[in-house]
Amino acid sequence: MDDSRTFELLSSGETGGVFQLEGAGMRRYLKELKPANFSDIAAMVALYRPGPMNHIPTFIRAKHGLEPISYPHPALAGILEETHGVIVYQDQVLFIVQALAGYSLGQADIVRKAMGKKIPEIMRRERLRFLEGAEKKGFSHEVAKQVFELIEPFAGYAFNKAHSVSYAMIAYQTAYLKANYPVEYMTALLVAHSGQHDKVAAAVADCQRMGIRVLPPDVNESEETFSIESVEKQAIRFGLADIKNVGVDAITPILAARKAGGLFKSIDDFCRRTDLRGMNKRVMESLIKAGVMDHLGSRGALLQRLERILWLSQHEQVLREKGQATMFDLWGQSVATPLPEIELHEVDIPLKERLAWERELLGVYLSEHPFQQAARQLASSVTALCGQIDIEMVGQTVTVAGLVTSVRQGFTKSRRPFMNATLEDLVGSIEVTCWADIYQRTEDLWVEGNILLVQGKVRARQEGVQIACDQVRRYEPRATEPADDVPIPSREGRLRITIAQTDNEKEDLLRFHQILDIVKRYPGGDRVIMAIADGGSRVNLDMPNMSTGYCRELHEQLVELVGEEGLRLEN
Description:
Elements: H1 4-12, H2 24-33, H3 38-47, H4 56-63, H5 77-80, H6 90-101, H7 105-117, H8 120-136, H9 141-155, H10 161-180, H11 182-192, H12 197-210, E1 213-215, E2 227-230, E3 235-237, H13 248-261, H14 267-273, H15 281-289, H16 299-304, H17 306-321, H18 327-331, H19 351-362, H20 372-378, E4 397-411, E5 417-424, E6 429-434, H21 436-442, E7 451-461, E8 464-474, E9 494-500, H22 505-521, E10 526-534, E11 537-548, H23 552-562, E12 567-570
Parallel strand pairs: 1-3, 6-8, 9-10
Antiparallel strand pairs: 2-3, 4-5, 4-7, 5-6, 7-8, 9-12, 10-11
Helix pairs in contact: 1-10, 3-10, 6-7, 7-9, 8-9, 10-11, 11-12, 14-17, 22-23
């Protein structure tokens, strides 16, 4: 257990999803400790709980030689040497009372239980017994008193070493997997958290920090649940059954049709091959809003024709079961344009609404976070991130920034209104309470979708924490100038993207869908034309339902996939 990548991961504090080590406070201590061996992990597992936690700074400083190691008495050096003079394990408590007061291990365990139950009468009796035993062994009354007062508040909370080592073993194993098999591990973690939107959101944020892309659900790429899209490309694909309102039964016919006949080429192809009789309107609407069908048509166009799509598919299956020729058969499978019955007409859906659908149905923003731009501009103004504020920060004044995702008004006993809101940044979320006096002056700011900068004091609340707001202001974005090296057109045009075909069909298909994903992130009025180049030949693919907004960021991301020669903007 000496894997360098594992200890680098632990020392960085990037331990989201690592057993026992994923809390914000634990991450902070790991970064300070920089564990170098398995014993360090076991010690941190034991120390990070009420009572022992107060000794963590001493343990860290002693380990790094920033503080001299000291023992309550030289006789205890052999017991506490491994843990730099700090009592860490229950076992050490047992050995200390045995060494100082002459207890047997059985008698020592009675002391430990008495300390844990904190029964005053038993504590008084054991204290006298300990002091008398220590004096009989030649230790002074002051030393015995000092040691007993040291172990008394500790013993009730401490882990025994076997318990700590067992936890540490699983912690090391999960850290090893995350450090050495990051895509595989994070995929497994997302599958384990399926249906728990808060945990999925935290894992997705962790993936983004690790450079792993979590791709949106796609009718041609997604499996039932989260799956590895590409280890080499560091990508995970969102699962169809992980979408809100969509269950396994609903998506089973889709997966079966794709397995039998390959990728869906159009919405009419999807209707012809997929038995949607078991799918109701709400499920299909959720799939479209979540972006699952984007490669078959725009969300607005598909939603407009939702009832027709369901009727055609269901009617198609009934005819097939009766052995009759279907309308698709009569038209022929080689039809290159959509059938009149499911002709799609573009309906513009604002980006803000599409992102709201994404958050509601996936529990997380995948294509773009509304707070993304603000996060960069407000980085120097915040002192803490919403998702990293924990119980250890109670009493501290912090400044946070984030997107208001929910607002709930309440009333004090004197019937004055106050407000509870959820503020979310790129890492997580936190509850904010704005009491009557401040709320009266700032009520117009507390609106879902607003981005706010909040200063306040961290308070304990039930099992978590919240911020009591002292000051708040709304974020006003600063205008940014585009880079000079990439031209930005003043009017709408056509963006021609040329993909050079290779011998690796799977990689080519992956690159094609990556391009489509990127194009969809930048909405605008520029028409998209795709071209496949194979040696001296070229095939143009007109994309009538797809447009984009050409900009520097879009240009840079596409260049990574097709090169400068693969992009051309035509006015």
